[in-house]
Amino acid sequence: MNILVLGSGGREHAIALKISQSPKTSKLFVAPGNAGTAAIATNIPVGVNDFDAIKEVVLRESIDLVVVGPEDPLVNGVHDFFLNDAELKPIPVIGPQKAAAALEGSKEFAKEFMMRHNIPTAAYESFTGESLEKGYAFLESLKPPYVLKADGLAAGKGVLILQDLEEAKTELKSMLLDSKFGSASATVVIEEFLDGIELSCFVLTDGSNYKILPTAKDYKRIGEGDTGLNTGGMGAISPVPFADSDFMDMVESRIVKPTVEGLKKDNLPYVGFVFIGLIKVDGEPKVIEYNVRMGDPETEVVIPRLKSDLVEVLVAMANGTLDQIDLQIDERAATTVMAVSGGYPEAYEKEKEIIGADTIEDSIVFHAGTKLQDGKVVTNGGRVIAITSFGKDFKEALQKSYQSMEKLHFDGMYYRKDLGFDL
Ligand code: AMP
Ligand code: GLY
């Protein structure tokens, strides 16, 4: 089969590597890809939201299957674009249609979905500019901290957690009336604060059947001890030690099953990955958010643990035969540590030469923000390279990732040395 992966991060490198290892893969393309995907696939310089250019590539390269990495094209309707085009219609797309992608594209939609299907989540109300005064009253009825969420996509920055009531009111006003997050904050969801420990659960579905992938936990803050600004993710581990089988049974019966059944009841076709952001509160799981794609950097620990042929799994998802797949998972733990550009997640420089990646032997090197320039691999983003290792437990795996990290260099490189500190 000829397969096209859309995206350019560590997630897409990890997915592409697994696809490249399948005997079912003939040709593999990544658009736009990075320096890492260039070594295992053909990169195509086309953006993930340029649907007309994607169509041209799909027809020119006789693509048989498209795997969508990031949320943007899904929320923008790339799957619907395929279904509405006579030539593209027969080609399966892994990733939900626009209607279901609203689970990530609109926090209000996601909350209403959870309420409708009795899926445990934080209590909430949503507000617009017209109901600002009601929003203030709702804030007054809550205890701090106050959780304010822009309804729409805001590149991971649309959630504010505030201790002070007056500050919460000011921010609410700025989100609703001054477009703090652009049109994304024209509606704001205010939520009850949940106190617990977070983890990520990944589900594959064909719309009726589902399979649960290994759990993972990512580290979002830039600083050690989970301090400082939020990032796209500084590393991850899988499995999550506190997600034991009793806990995961609750996750499956209270959350995963009602989610897949809810999608069906609501007539929301869904072929793809469901990323359920969970929080464990007093031993029980609640949903923090849905995403309609894999997580990054969680993919860099989850997908390497998959022993089954990923292409077979993806084809079963597209064909509605996921029930016939027996997922084989590597028992070992996996960890990934992300090397980032100096200054990230604030301003940082690009095009720093990356050296040493080819000397790393005990780990898998996934490229996130890299590109080829004059035959050299240079930095091209905030998150640059994720180094994934296996071990009998996460500590052993982490030690390997850190040893491998010592062989990697670029100007300004930074990584967290305390992953797993909270476990
Ligand atoms: P989200 O974009 O919805 O995942 O929110 C971003 C982050 O904010 C989450 O990963 C949590 O750490 C935090 N968060 C979101 N909602 C809540 C909540 N209701 N209670 C506590 N923390 C939350
Ligand atoms: N690692 C969190 C995310 O991908 O959204």
UniProtKB/TrEMBL annotation:
It is an enzyme of class 6 (ligase). Pathway: Purine metabolism; IMP biosynthesis via de novo pathway; N(1)-(5-phospho-D-ribosyl)glycinamide from 5-phospho-alpha-D-ribose 1-diphosphate: step 2/2. Its EC number is 6.3.4.13. It catalyses: 5-phospho-beta-D-ribosylamine + glycine + ATP = N(1)-(5-phospho-beta-D-ribosyl)glycinamide + ADP + phosphate + H(+). InterPro entries: ATP-grasp, ATP_grasp_subdomain_1, PreATP-grasp_dom_sf, PRibGlycinamid_synth_ATP-grasp, PRibGlycinamide_synth, PRibGlycinamide_synth_C-dom, PRibGlycinamide_synth_C_sf, PRibGlycinamide_synth_N. It comes from the Bacteria. Keywords: ATP-binding, Ligase, Nucleotide-binding, Purine biosynthesis. One of its GO terms (biological process) is purine nucleobase biosynthetic process. GO terms for molecular function: ATP binding; metal ion binding; phosphoribosylamine-glycine ligase activity. Residues 111-319 form the ATP-grasp domain. It holds the Pfam family GARS_A. The keyword DNA damage does not apply. NCBIfam families: purD. HAMAP family: GARS. PANTHER family: PHOSPHORIBOSYLAMINE--GLYCINE LIGASE, PHOSPHORIBOSYLAMINE--GLYCINE LIGASE, CHLOROPLASTIC. Belongs to the GARS family. This is Phosphoribosylamine--glycine ligase. The lineage of its organism: Bacteria, Pseudomonadati, Bacteroidota, Flavobacteriia, Flavobacteriales. The gene is purD.
